[in-house]
Write a structure and sequence with these properties.
Length: 300
Amino acid sequence: MPLSQVLGWLAARGHRTQIEELPGEACVNWVAAAGDVVVRVCKLPGDPDARTESVAVPVVVGAGIRTPRLLDFDETQRTVEATITLYERWPGVALGTVSPHEAELPGFYRELGRELGHLHSRVLECPDPFGWLDEAEPSDPEGHLEMAVQNHRLDAPNALWLGRWIERLRPANSHQGEPRFLHNDAHSFNTMALPDGSFSGILDWGDAGWGDPAFDFSTLPLWAVPWALEGYREVGCATDPGFCGRVLGYILETALDWENRNEVPGQEPWSPTASSLHVNLARFLATDPGPEWREWLPQD
């Protein structure tokens, strides 16, 4: 993608052509700031995530969710030979790019939980005439475990232990929460922090769609979920008895999925790689998360 195309596209819309690349660029988009706007150019043929964002972002902004406004969505490829989007520049930096003080994290995640509560309770409809929103897939931890064994990613004793845990989670996973509008990817590189460590907003709605509200918590670091749930409940969002079990089930399934993908280490630090999920799980199990979690934790 020639940079001159992007500069010409910005100039045609009256924006600055002095740009700075931003940290945290994903494999899908090239990202840069031009003054008070951020331009994202898809690096792959087609961009279903940008289409999803074009549907979701105007709705969530209208609901008062703290996220950058979508200013332009262009997939014509008349000026730039790729899908290109333009957003307002949001204050702060991605949490995953900084090292906040440990004391700041509970407040950050409680506020993120409140924001997820606002999202789940305020967005009651989202017109999607072309079917661009993501669709929730049925949970299948057993299938991912079986594949991990077939791919020689797990030995027999550990596979047996995980199988017992999955069975323990079955009552929770047999019931899905009432569908809510989800961000679906609120990991630390998609959540913004201010210099004082406080929560600023949520980025990247390329996976947004309808689904079980518990899934939005499975993309957070597991050790931070209890704090986020405190904030979620503070804004009046209730959780059913199996909610925490489903969070664990989704996280376990995602860990097995990434194990099966066998991605190159370090390729995508912003993605929920198997190693980061294993660390999150170990950190969580080293704490005392409370009775609503204990009944869903492995027992041996």
